[in-house]
Amino acid sequence: MKKKIVCIHLLNGFTGSPNVLATVINGLFNENYDVTLLTSLNNKGFLSDVNCAQKINISYVFKKNIIGRLFQFLKFQFLATLLLLKRNRNAIVYLNTIQPFLPAILAKLRGNKVIYHIHEAYPKKSFFTSFLFFIVQITATKIICVSEYVLNQLDVKSKQKASVVYNSLPLEFYANQILKNEAVNQKQILMVSSAREYKGVFEFCKLALLLNEYNFVLVCDASKQEISELFKEYKNISNLQIVETQMDLHPFYAKSNLIMNLSNPSQIIETFGLTILEGMSYGLPCIIPPVGGITELVTEGINGYKVDSRKTEELINKIRLMLDNDAKYKEMSNEAIKMSKNFSFDVFMNKIKLVIG
């Protein structure tokens, strides 16, 4: 008899957590699991085309004002909980991120096995975030953490139920890889990010202004209009290209020489770094923040560097150290590919199935 799993995720999109869940669902589908997905399919994203028994849309529209966001958030909670009521009591409830708290409470009361896949870590928790982690503590049967850093942020009781399963690249990613373009005259630096100030997008633009010997490409999870409004100060930088949401990042990886994550560690801690891993699979050394789960991908000076995005001079020095020394670059590029191979899809899925039981 097929194992029934209900996966719940709040906001579908082209960011890390829905990407990881899509990998999980496609992997389980190929292993003959009966998976139902509840998510906001009104938004395009990695979950739009997953293979599963059933996909149910729970409309969620991101609102800029707090009241609008709260309404959308609570509406999703109630609708997901009502839909879960109609599911089999023996179904495993798989919650992607800590956000679906109301379905977690119902699942616990009904006796469902509750699995949390946690991508978030907050060293300084707000009241609401503390509440969400409390719900995790009292409802979770098992917890999957995307890095050791995430696991270490959990309370003692939650840690006892938790295990680390590093994200992997899906088989489709490797199947769609294209040849690197080695004939590019000007070296290119890539950053893939949501269009948020705390992600270091403006620091990236400023680096382009200071380093006009390199091309800079910023791929934002945002529309052309949003980009036009947010980056109006930087639109005339000749060596900077800012691109809207992309479903296929392979051409960008293939044309680039270096990948960056410039998240401000005083505002956000990166718990993994899926686009960094994707870039490394193309042989791109990286520059990343010096804290968080993302550091578990990088050995300093071997396949990249860990630099605080507020230290502009150090960023410039590391970029030039890698891109202006061909022998050093080739060595680091080979090490990046080696590191990416440590995050195997087969190992990832075996660990996921072990947690599911």
Summarize the structure in short.
The model has no long low-confidence stretch (mean pLDDT about 95). It contains 14 helices and 13 strands. The protein has two domains: about 5-165, 3-Layer(aba) Sandwich (Rossmann fold), CATH 3.40.50.2000; about 175-340, Glycogen Phosphorylase B (Rossmann fold, 3-Layer(aba) Sandwich).
Please give a structural write-up.
- It is a single chain.
- By secondary structure, this protein is α/β, with parallel strands linked by helices.
- It folds into two domains: 162 residues, Glycogen Phosphorylase B (Rossmann fold, 3-Layer(aba) Sandwich), CATH 3.40.50; 170 residues, Glycogen Phosphorylase B (Rossmann fold, 3-Layer(aba) Sandwich), CATH 3.40.50.2000.
- It is built from 14 helices and 13 strands.
- The strands form two sheets. A seven-stranded parallel β-sheet has the order 3-2-1-4-5-6-7, with helices on both faces. Strands 10-9-8-11-12-13 form a six-stranded parallel β-sheet, with helices on both faces.
- The longest helix has 20 residues.
- The chain is globular.
- The two termini are 14 Å apart.
- The mean pLDDT is 95.
